[in-house]
C-alpha cells in the first residue's frame, strides 16, 4: 500500500448511527478486562437448555472446547424462540429466483417447513451425528435442509453447486455422508443448470449414501434410481409441521465445510454448535449494527461458502433478521439486477465481495445511478482485501457517500468475523480491516513469531482461542495441528495471510502468504500491486501473480481489465508502459510488472475469488490445472491466446 493511498481521507461514523449503535467503544475495554466473561455475555444472547459449567477448556491446545457442559439447539435459536416471542409473522427471507419468481417466508412458515424436513430426515433413518451432503442452488430448500439437519443433530456438509462430480464424490466419501439432498438444477445466467447428473456420478463412486432427495426447481428431465432417489415434495410435504427439537452439547458437530486445495486433498473444516452460534450471532448483530425491526439485510453470496453459512443462515436467523436471498448472477437479465433488488426490497445492509464491486466499477457508475439506493445505511466487504479505490467507489456510488463500510477479515476456519471496524465506533480507512473485534487477539509477527511494532509488515496470527474456531479437520487431527498450529507452536494459529500494521497500529491484510512474491529478495504482496494498478483511472480490475524468473527469482505478471470508457486505441503498448510507470510511482521500481496483459475477464470461482494459480500456470506456460470451479472456463482459453511468446521488458 503506497503512502499516498494511506494518507487519503478518513471516514468517521455518521453521528446518528454512532448514537444508536448496538456496540460502543467500551466493548473493547470490557473484553480486554475479561475476555472469557465477554464471550459468556454474548453466549447469553442465545437460549440454552442447560448453561455451561466452564467457558473454555484449552487444556490440550490446539483442541478447544467452548461452553463445556452447555446444551442448546441451533434451529430452535434461529426459529422457534422468535415464533414463541410473537414474531412468527416477521419475514425471514425475501427470496428471488433468477428468472424473476419470488417467495416470501415468514419465521412461522420457515419453522413449519424445517419441522417437516426434520421429520422427513428422521423417517429416512438419519440420526444425530450422521452426515448429510447438500448440493443445491440458492433456493429456500437449501436453508431448510441445513436447519433440519441442525434440528435433529445431523451434521450437514454443503457442497457448492458449481463443484464437479469429482469434488462432490471426494467430499461425500471423506465425510461418510448417508444422504444427499440436491435439486434437478438451478438457474444461472438465464438458463437452467443441471445438478442431478453430477450427484448420480458422484454417488456411483461412493458406498455410504442410502438415499438422494431431489427438489424440483427447473423441471429438467433427470435420471432416476428407484429405491434410492426420492422427490423432496413426496417425502417432506406429507410430514407433520411440528417437531420438538433436542438440545445438543455445545461441542456437538454442526457442519463440515471443505476448503479446496490445489494439490492436496480438500480439508473438512469442522464447526461445532455453541461457540460457533455465539460468535456468528454476536458479530452479525454488532458488525452490521442490525436493527431487526427495521433493517433488510442482504449477504450477496452463495450458501455453499462459509459466508453463506454464517451471514445468510445462522447469524441473521439467530438475530431475527429479515434477509434477501437471490439465486442468480448480477448481470441477468441486465447489469442493474442487484440495484433493482435493493430498490424493490428496500435493502438497508449489503454485504458482498471486492471482486464483485470491481466488476460493477468496470460496468460504470451510470448503472447504479439509475436506481433508488437510499434505503442503504451500511455496507460490508468480504472474501479478500478490498483495495482503496474499490472501497471509495463502493462508498460513493452504492452508499451515496453516507454508508460506513465494514471491511471484514475472517476465514472458513475462523467461522465468523475476526478483524473488522465497528460501525458506530471506528473512523474508517479505505482498504484497512483495522482492528480485531472485542474478544479476539490478533498480532502481526515476523518469521520467528516475534510481534512487530507499528509501520511494519509480517504474518497474521491469532494468539488466543475464539468461540467460532474450527475444532479440527474432519477425521485428521494430525493434519489440523500441522496445517494451522505448527509454525509458531500449538497456542498460536497461523492464518496463512500476510498483514501490515500502519503507523496507527491498524491492520491492512495483504492476502495469502503464497500470494506474496519474492522479487530479487524483496517480499511484495500481490494485493499491493493490484491496488496500485486499480488506482489508475483506466483500470477496473487487476490480478497479479509471481512467475518464475531466471534473474530475479520471480517476475511480476499482471492481468488487467480496463474500464468501459477506455477505447481500443488507448489499450495498446503505450497504456502498458503508462501502467508500469504508475506502479513504479506508487510502490517503487522493484514492483514494476514484467508483463501487463489487457484481458476481457479474469478466471473466477462462483464465490468471486480470482483463481491466481491458473494465471500463474499461464504466466509460466504450464498446462492449466483444474478449471471446474470457474464460472466460465473459456476465460482461460482467451487469456492463453493473448499470451505473448516472450515477456516484454522496459
Describe the structure.
The chain is α/β, with parallel strands linked by helices. The chain contains 21 helices and 30 strands. The protein has a seven-stranded mixed sheet, sandwiched between helices. The protein has a five-stranded parallel sheet with strand order 7-6-8-11-12, with helices on both faces. It has a four-stranded antiparallel sheet with strand order 21-22-24-25. Helix 8 (165-175) packs across helix 9. The chain is globular, with a radius of gyration of 24 Å.
How many domains make up the 3D coordinates?
Answer: 2
Q: How many β strands by DSSP?
A: 30
Order of strands in the sheet with most strands: 5-4-17-16-18-19-20
Strand content bin: 15-25%
Shape: globular
CATH class of the largest domain: Alpha Beta
Radius of gyration: 24 Å
The whole-number mean of residue pLDDT values reads 92
Output the number of helix runs: 21
Spans of at least 5 consecutive residues with low confidence? 1-7, 645-650
CATH architecture field of the largest domain: 3-Layer(aba) Sandwich
By secondary-structure content and strand pairing, the structural class works out as alpha/beta
Reported for the largest beta sheet, the result is: 7 strands, mixed
Amino acid at each position: 500500500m503506497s503512502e499516498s493511498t494511506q494518507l487519503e481521507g478518513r471516514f468517521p461514523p455518521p453521528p446518528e448511527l454512532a448514537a444508536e449503535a448496538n456496540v460502543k467503544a467500551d466493548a473493547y475495554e470490557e473484553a480486554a478486562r475479561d475476555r472469557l466473561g465477554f464471550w459468556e455475555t454474548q453466549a447469553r444472547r442465545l437460549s440454552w437448555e442447560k448453561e455451561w459449567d466452564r467457558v473454555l477448556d484449552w487444556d490440550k491446545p490446539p483442541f478447544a472446547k467452548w461452553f463445556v457442559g452447555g446444551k442448546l439447539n441451533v434451529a430452535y435459536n434461529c426459529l422457534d424462540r422468535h415464533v414463541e416471542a410473537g414474531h412468527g409473522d416477521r419475514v425471514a427471507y425475501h427470496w428471488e429466483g433468477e428468472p424473476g419468481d419470488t417467495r416470501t417466508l415468514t419465521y412461522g412458515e420457515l419453522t413449519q417447513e424445517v419441522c417437516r424436513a426434520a421429520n422427513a430426515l428422521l423417517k429416512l433413518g438419519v440420526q444425530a451425528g450422521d452426515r448429510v451432503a447438500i448440493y443445491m442452488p440458492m433456493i429456500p430448500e437449501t436453508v431448510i435442509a441445513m436447519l433440519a439437519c441442525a434440528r435433529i443433530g445431523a451434521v450437514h456438509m454443503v457442497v457448492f453447486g458449481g463443484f464437479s462430480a469429482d469434488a462432490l464424490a471426494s467430499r461425500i466419501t471423506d465425510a461418510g455422508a448417508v444422504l444427499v439432498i440436491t435439486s434437478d438444477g438451478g438457474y444461472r445466467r438465464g438458463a437452467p443448470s443441471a445438478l442431478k447428473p453430477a450427484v448420480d456420478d458422484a454417488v456411483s463412486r461412493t458406498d455410504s449414501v442410502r438415499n438422494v432427495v431431489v427438489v424440483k426447481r427447473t423441471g429438467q428431465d433427470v435420471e432416476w434410481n428407484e429405491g434410492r432417489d426420492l422427490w423432496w415434495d413426496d417425502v417432506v410435504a406429507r410430514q407433520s409441521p411440528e417437531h420438538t427439537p433436542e438440545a445438543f452439547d455445545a461441542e456437538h458437530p454442526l457442519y463440515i465445510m471443505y476448503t479446496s486445495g490445489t494439490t492436496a486433498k480438500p480439508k473438512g473444516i469442522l464447526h461445532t454448535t455453541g461457540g460457533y452460534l455465539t460468535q456468528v450471532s454476536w458479530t452479525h448483530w454488532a458488525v452490521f449494527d442490525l436493527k431487526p425491526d427495521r433493517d433488510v439485510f442482504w449477504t450477496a453470496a452463495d450458501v455453499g461458502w462459509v459466508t453463506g453459512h454464517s451471514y445468510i443462515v445462522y447469524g441473521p436467523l439467530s438475530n431475527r433478521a429479515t434477509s434477501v436471498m437471490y439465486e442468480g448472477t448480477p448481470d441477468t437479465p441486465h447489469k442493474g439486477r442487484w440495484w433493482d433488488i435493493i430498490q424493490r426490497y428496500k435493502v438497508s445492509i449489503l454485504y458482498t465481495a471486492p471482486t464483485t464491486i470491481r466488476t460493477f466499477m468496470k460496468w460504470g457508475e451510470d448503472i447504479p445511478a439509475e436506481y433508488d439506493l437510499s434505503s442503504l445505511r451500511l455496507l460490508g466487504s468480504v472474501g479478500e482485501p478490498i483495495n482503496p479505490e474499490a472501497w471509495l467507489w463502493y462508498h460513493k456510488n452504492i452508499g451515496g457517500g453516507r454508508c460506513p463500510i465494514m471491511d471484514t477479515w475472517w476465514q472458513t476456519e475462523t467461522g465468523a468475523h475476526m478483524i473488522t471496524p465497528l460501525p458506530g465506533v471506528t473512523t474508517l480507512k479505505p482498504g484497512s480491516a483495522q482492528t480485531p473485534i472485542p474478544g479476539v487477539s490478533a498480532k502481526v509477527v515476523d518469521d520467528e513469531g516475534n510481534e512487530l511494532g507499528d509501520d511494519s509488515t509480517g504474518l497474521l496470527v491469532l494468539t488466543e482461542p475464539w468461540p467460532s474456531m474450527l475444532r479440527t479437520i474432519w477425521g485428521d487431527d494430525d493434519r489440523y495441528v500441522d496445517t494451522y498450529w505448527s509454525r509458531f507452536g500449538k497456542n498460536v494459529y497461523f492464518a496463512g495471510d500476510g498483514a501490515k500494521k500502519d503507523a496507527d497500529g491498524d491492520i491492512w491484510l495483504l492476502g495469502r502468504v503464497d500470494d506474496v512474491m519474492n522479487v530479487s529478495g524483496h517480499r511484495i504482496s500481490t494485493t499491493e500491486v493490484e491496488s496500485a494498478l486499480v488506482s489508475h483511472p483506466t483500470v477496473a480490475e487487476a490480478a497479479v501473480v509471481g512467475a518464475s524468473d531466471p534473474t530475479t527469482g520471480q517476475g511480476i505478471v499482471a492481468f488487467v481489465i480496463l474500464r468501459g470508457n477506455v477505447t481500443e486505441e488507448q489499450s495498446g503498448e503505450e497504456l502498458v508502459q503508462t501502467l508500469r510507470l504508475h506502479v513504479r510511482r506508487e510502490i517503487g521500481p522493484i514492483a514494476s510488472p514484467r508483463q501487463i496483459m489487457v484481458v476481457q475477464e479474469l478466471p473466477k470461482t462462483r464465490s468471486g475469488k480470482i483463481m491466481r494459480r491458473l494465471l500463474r500456470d499461464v504466466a509460466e506456460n504450464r498446462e492449466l490445472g483444474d478449471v471446474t470451479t470457474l464460472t466460465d472456463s473459456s476465460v482461460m482459453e482467451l487469456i492463453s491466446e493473448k499470451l505473448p511468446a516472450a515477456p516484454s521488458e522496459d
